[in-house]
Amino acid sequence: MSVYRKVLEYEDQLIEWRREFHRFPELSFEEFHTSKRIVEILQTMNHIQIEKGLGTPTSVIATITTGEGPVVALRADMDALPIQEQTHTPYESQNPGVMHACGHDAHTAILLGAAKVISVLAQSKAWEGTIKLIFQPAEEAQDEHGLSGSPYLLQAGVYDQVEAAFALHMCPWKKTGQLLINDGFSMASVDEFEATIYATGGHGGYPEKSTDPIWMLSLVLPGLYGIISRRIAAAEKGVISVGEIQAGNATNIIPAKASIRGTIRSYTPTIRDQLERELHQVFQMVHSLGGEYRLNVSRGEPALYNDPYLNQIVRHSVRKIQTHIDLFEDNFGMGGEDFGYVSQKLPATMFFLGCALEEDYSRDLHTPVFDIDESSLVLGVTILVESALARLKQATI
C-alpha cells in the first residue's frame, strides 16, 4: 500500500481537524478542550491504546503495537499563544486573545492523520514494533517551576522505551513541497536572565549626592551587547537580547534600583556556559561604579540536536514519496524548541515543513496573521509515517 496515496484519502479530514483546532486554541497547560477532542478522534480508530494525563493533565499518548520490536515516537505539540488573531478567515480563533500562531494546530492534525494511517496499516502487520503518538501540551511556555511540557513527559516515563523520536514544525518561509533539515544542533537553547542594580537614588537636581542605577545600567548595556561580538568566536552561534528595562516612576527622582530582563540563546553547551559566565563578568562593573547588583539566570530548554542517522531516514522517506520535493540543508535559526529536552535524552530529529501561502506578504510564526497552505498537511503526515516505519524496519539508508 502506498502511504502517500492512503494519506491523500484523508486530506479533507486533515484540513477539517486543523481548522477545528485553530478555531478553539488554548494556552500552555490549559489544553483541556483540545486534548478531549483528540481523545474523541482517536477513539474512532482501531488498534490504538490511549493514555491521558501522563506528566501533565492535558497530555494524550496513543500507542499502536504489532508485536515485539523497536519503539518509535512521533510527537506533536498542541498549545497556542497569547496573540489576538487578525487573519479574518472563516476558521479564525473564537477565543479572544489566543491564537494558533505557531502551527501547533497543524502539528496536531498531522499527528492525528499519522495515527489514522498507522492504525489502518497495523491490520496488515507489515512491521513489528510499537509507535507512540505523543500529543504534548505546553511547548510555548513554562510553569511556575520553570518547566514546559517535554520535561514533564520525560519525567513521567513517556519516552522510557523509545529508541527514536520524530517531530516536525511548520515553516512559513518555505513553500509547500520544500523541507528544511539539519544534522546536529539546529535550534538554540533558551535561557532567561533578570538583574537588578541597586544604588542610593536621590534628588534629580543633585545627582552628585547620589549613586544612579540608570547611569550604571547604561554602562553595563554596551558590555552586555559586546559579549557576542567580542567574546564569542564568530563561527559560534549565540544571541543575548534585552526585552525589558524598568526604573523609576517620577521625572525628578533618581531611583534606587533599575531592573533588566532578557534571553540568552546558543547552540552548544560550551557556548551556553560561556555566555552565562560573561554575563556575570559584565555586571561586576557595577561594583566599581558604587552600586550592587543581583543577577539570576534561569535555564530553559536545551538546544535541539537532530540525530544524523534519523535525518537520513527522513531524507530517504522524502525521496520515496516525491522526487520533486526540495530539501534545504540549514539550521532553523535561534528560536527555541522544547523537543530539545527529548533530543538530549535519546536519538531524535525535527524537520521544518514548508507551508507558505502564495501571497505578497509574510505570515511569520508568532504573528497575528500567521496562516498556512493546508496542502502541506498531507506531506507532513506521509513523511512522519514513512520515517517511523523505516526506523521500525531498521531500513538500510
Automatic annotation (TrEMBL):
One GO MF term: hydrolase activity
InterPro entries, sorted: Amidohydrolase (IPR017439), Bact_exopeptidase_dim_dom (IPR036264), Peptidase_M20 (IPR002933), Peptidase_M20_dimer (IPR011650)
Keyword annotations: Manganese, Metal-binding
Cofactor: record remark: The Mn(2+) ion enhances activity.
Segments forming domain Peptidase M20 dimerisation: 193-283
Binding residues for Mn(2+): 102, 104, 140, 169, 366
Cofactor: Mn(2+)
Source superkingdom: Bacteria
Protein name according to UniProt: N-acyl-L-amino acid amidohydrolase
